[in-house]
Amino acid sequence: MGFKGKSTGETGEKIACSYLEAQGYEIIIKNYKCRIGEIDVIARDRDVLCFIEVKTRRNNSYGPPYLAVTRNKQKQISLVALNFIANRSDSFSGFRFDVVSINRVNGKNEIELYKGAFDGTI
């Protein structure tokens, strides 16, 4: 999947969802929004609820994509996750925060999945 005709982020999220599904994740919702912010993907990995941030780059000039998930971004994702959990009645054994890092190198997508990338402590 290329980056032509769509925003880098939108294309990256499609690539990430396909990748996650191939890894056994069940996508619950994409682009969950509330007044606090947004989470790119919320999915189930077996009985664990996963809040997933997707970072995509077309080159390495700003460093690896996952480095863009700063401490402030982690705090915002944590607050949005709390909002999501408060409005659901689903049962999960736990939750975690994952990051999918996508880098377009030599015409190919390099995808890295960081499970438990941060702890969500606010």
Which structural traits does this protein have?
122 residues, alpha+beta, single chain, 5-stranded mixed sheet, 25% helix, Trna Endonuclease, Chain: A, domain 1
Commentary on this structure:
By secondary structure, this protein is of the alpha+beta class. It has one domain (8-118): Trna Endonuclease, Chain: A, domain 1 (3-Layer(aba) Sandwich). It has helices spanning 8-22, 71-86, and strands spanning 26-34, 37-45, 48-57, 94-105, 108-118. Strands 1-2-3-4-5 form a five-stranded mixed beta sheet, with helices on both faces. The chain starts with 7 loop residues before the first helix and ends with a strand.
Summarize the structure.
The protein has 122 residues and is an alpha+beta fold.
Tell me, briefly, the overall form.
Answer: globular
What is the count of DSSP helices, taking H or I runs of 4+ residues? 2
Helix content, binned percent: 25-40%
Pattern of helices and strands? HEEEHEE
Question: SS-based structural class?
Answer: alpha+beta
By CATH reckoning, the class would read Alpha Beta
CATH fold description: Trna Endonuclease, Chain: A, domain 1
Query: Separation of termini?
Result: 36 Å
Structure summary, number of beta strands: 5
Looking at the overall shape, the CATH architecture is 3-Layer(aba) Sandwich
Radius of gyration: 14 Å
Mean pLDDT, to the nearest integer, reads: 90
Strand order of the largest sheet: 1-2-3-4-5
Work out the strand percent.
35-45%
Largest sheet: 5 strands, mixed
The low-pLDDT segments are none
Number of domains: 1
